[in-house]
Sequence to fold (845 residues):
Amino acid sequence: MPAMLRGGEVAGALLLWGAFCACSAPALQAAAPAPAAGPEAEPRALLLRGGNLLTASGPALEGADLLIRGERIEAIGRNLALPRGAELIELGGRWLTPGLIDPHSHLGVYPMPMVAAHADGNEVSDPFTADVRALDSFWPQDPAIERARAGGVTAIHVLPGSANLVGGQGATLRLIDARSAREMEFPDAPHSMKLACGENPKRVYGEGRHVAPSSRMGEVALLRQRLEDARAWKPESGKGPDLELRALRQMLDGELLIQNHCYRADEMLLRLELFGEFDVRPRAFHHATEAYKIAGELAAAGVGAVVWADWWGIKLELWDAVPANAALLARAGVRVALHSDSPYDVQRLNQQAAVALAAGRRAGLELSRDEAIRWVTANPAWILGIDGEVGTLEPGKRADLAVWSADPFSVYARAELVLIDGRVVYERRAPREPRSDFELGLGGEP
Amino acid sequence: VSVWLAAVAITGATVYTGAAEPLEGATVLIEGSRVQAVGRNLGLPRNARVIDARGAVVTPGLIDAFSRLGLEEVVGESTSVEAVADPLADPVRAALRAADGFDPLSLTLAPARAGGITSAAIVPLGGLVAGQSAWVDLVPGEPVRRARLALHVRIGADAGSGEQPARPGARALGLSRLRELFADARLYRGNRGPYLSGRLRELSVSAADLDVLGRALAGELPVVFRVDRSADILRVLELAERERLRAVLAGVAEGWLVAQRIAKAGVPVIADALDNLPASFDKLRARDDNVALLHAAGVRVALSGLGDSHFAPRLRHSAGNAVAAGMPRAAAIAAITRVPAQIFGLDDAGVLRAGAQANLVIWNGDPLELGTWATHVFVRGRELELDTRQDALTRRYLR
Fold:
């Protein structure tokens, strides 16, 4: 495999990757030309030259270039001119994709190690906690974050867990090094409201505590009452602001995207009916195991489906999971995204797409890789309301992308370079050092 | 009653036999439940069924060395989960046999088979000494090939409960209790008569458990230690050497830190190639290339998802990921075929050569890849149906 070339145009010559740099990641900065003085200076430019681009917006482009200026993609095409002063990375036929997006993550709220002190993903004190926010639990030192980034993931939607009927608010975070979740927030991304139906709330409350809800019908009745309360709620009423009801009201007013954890087809259909009573609809059903059974209804309602490629059977509402779920949904025109819900699987979202694609093909569905790459890029971007900013390789989009050592649908492919807002945030060939404070000094380094 | 099976010739394939390099354009000849021959330019018996496998790949049937296949249907429903002892009430259950809980009709089996798995070591869980695993071939009829395969021991912070928080001090408690158990078993082994006539001191577990522990001491039964922390691995190696056990290590998330010691002890490991997170205080130093480093140090490595029966079909992909993390391709394939068979002393499994059990898979491409699948699976010479309940559901809603 040819060494990836990188370097600056300053000396008029390419510098060999690593030839000058024994420094730590991100090494790219070392080769950057000195910034020009003055506010009128052009933002820095970076040309990625000679790659195969899975754009997620159309057919793959082979032997193409991608020019980044500042935080955004400026141009895509063959034989793009190298702007004066721009940095250059020779892709040497490597694959380039949009940065992968996980629309359902508990990174940071259930961080490593998984001990009681770190269990911050569920506020298990009431089945309604619309006022809590996942970003207030999020620990940016979770060692799982850097491993997700090494898997080509640039953004995640962090959600509270599913113990509660209304679990609280989710936020979309960029996987950059930061001291708080606030610093990681994706600019202007809408927040979401996490709801859950099915086994989890009734197990936690009914079975675990002998309080409501203890059944699926109890879950729906409680939620309907609470939504009625929220609809009737007025800011000036009562003894003071009720933050919980106010948040639910914001959800009903469309200020928060509804992300509803729901496995079974029957429950999803009834949930659509319930939301219809309040003139809202969910942005997407998550863990939508049986979505393939109601693909037409979901497509007609414009509701997304967030699914796994191959999870099944670990709980009863996962019993009817099929690996062709994503493929069946795509065929029906549903906006389908793959999610991890796992600090392990988030490291291989590209492999999940490959497995789901293969399952569709094995079932006889004709699907392209150009479609399947959307399951981990453009479609989750839409589900999170950031599709105007990321999710495809198109001029004007933020330069969040991953360079792969091989075809990203191959098990042997690894992200070699990951960029967020045009800056290198991960470089495989850089010396290995933990990025989280937690792992520093553990003696785990080679 | 024996069923006569016609000869089957699989021709023109790339065949992974168990040697380092595959044979190109080779034929595998199956007669009955055994492989008759593997090679190029073989003469085919008259009336043999011929499968033209040009462009395809043939491997031995894959083996999951640490599996819960057939022992659980829905993990979250306790009434469908078998061979799990209560870690506190029943921490020592050497006499338990996972084979007693195995259901050959379990729905977990078909997806595993479609994923190329033809055999598994199915393991009991729970407590310090969970019981004995079994070797099963994923075939209808009489799937259990060996009902007393190995003894399973857990050393770790969770004390075999599989849950956090752990019981404080579980590692030292577990090791001291193990020494006590083996001392009792040794005493019992030499004094069965006095024990039965009540002339021996009281022993800490039942005679049934002592019998099994005694078989482990005699080297008749391998002992699989589920252990992750590097310090615990060293303590287990010491114990295994002192008691002269046929030890196997499973888990070993921190194994790379003590890889030379494991190699020197000649102890094989069963590890999860994807176990790269510091998920507990037992594996704070988990890393991506653990299995590659263990292999490089000379340790015999088998790969397994370590008990996720619903994710068993991922086994071959985990081997592909091990390759991407630096494990040589031949070693990764051996880690899901030949090595697990050798670990448990079943030398006619996991390989394709004359006389081997005819467990094999025909793939429509690289078996470790994500976009390929098994087109034919043979177990004990029988071609098995690859259709799963998931396939049936898919067809129903594909209309």
